[in-house]
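lol ok so funny story. i was supposed to be doing the assay writeup but got distracted and ended up predicting the structure for this chain instead. priorities right. anyway since i did it might as well share w the group, maybe its usefull for someone
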Amino acid sequence: MKKNVLLITAALILAACASNTAVDKDVQATQDWSHDRLYREARDELNSGSYDRAVKLYEILRSRQADGRYTEQSLLDSAYAHYKNEEPAKALADLARFMHNFPASVDMDYALYLRGLVLFDEDQSFLRKLASQDWSDRDPEANRRAFRAFEELVKRFPESKYAEDASKRMAQLVDALGGHELAIAQYYAKRGAFLAANNRAQSVIRQYQNTRYVEEALAIMIYSYQKMGNQQLADDSMRILKQNFPESPYLQKGWAQNNSMPWWGWWRRSE
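and the output, tada:
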């Protein structure tokens, strides 16, 4: 056992030495390069998809020119390289450093857009994951953070070339968040937690009133109010449903009064 531990330790030391050697080789190989050449080479590596190599060259450049003219752009380029290399934490760290050090940069709109993209892609498969995980306790904070990043971009730089795409992604995020809230309302209603289901359904109507989930949220409110014995509020919710969705299938007589579970689409797919 002791021998195995020694072997593992030796392997780790060798790996670390190999990594340091690689970095040293980059430093040595570029020691006579000008800042212009170093930046061009890093950019070429980035454009060719060699993201690890590009990041190393940008790091060397910044170490030699901490306050030089390439520092701003190298941080943005490094963030983009980490984003493309599926390293969101590193990308966000570079962007945070950029925003802190260069708050008046002419590229701030791009930095905000890229931060939104990193967060957006970090959880873009959220709705697909609902079918395969215990999502009831999940808080899609990445979606909310992405929305805030895009929102800041659109508010601060409405004329930015990135604003239109940011607005489209904001709409997608609102839809995802509304769907998440409705899914939780369904989850609680299915398990007989009618007060919790009602509260979540009301949240959909308050916060996501422009999404496709309002109709079903009203139906859940009607159903849960009836199950809790509050017919007056159930009737009020039914009236709102009729006014806003006169062709709604949830207006069919008796759908909420029967003893079986309502036939809402998500439940039918999940069972």
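The domain at 33-104 is CATH 1.25.40.10 (Serine Threonine Protein Phosphatase 5, Tetratricopeptide repeat). Residues 216 and 265 are 10 Å apart (CA to CA).
back to the writeup now i swear
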